[in-house]
Amino acid sequence: MSTPFRRVWAWPLALALLSASGLFSALVSDTWGDAWSWLALGLPVLVMTRCSLRRSQA
């Protein structure tokens, strides 16, 4: 059974950690860090766009 806290905050926290790691990687890394930062910063945008489009269709 999941707790209400986990049910509400699991995805936002995961996306926040992903974004933070992408920002940190973009600042301090080169080569592989550039690829990771693009992925880590682009994925939350894709998730939010998908959720927004799905909500507007319903």
Automatic annotation (TrEMBL):
<keyword id="KW-0812">Transmembrane</keyword>
<feature type="transmembrane region" description="Helical">
    <location>
        <begin position="35"/>
        <end position="53"/>
    </location>
</feature>
<protein>
    <recommendedName>
        <fullName>DUF58 domain-containing protein</fullName>
    </recommendedName>
</protein>
<keyword id="KW-0472">Membrane</keyword>
<keyword id="KW-1133">Transmembrane helix</keyword>
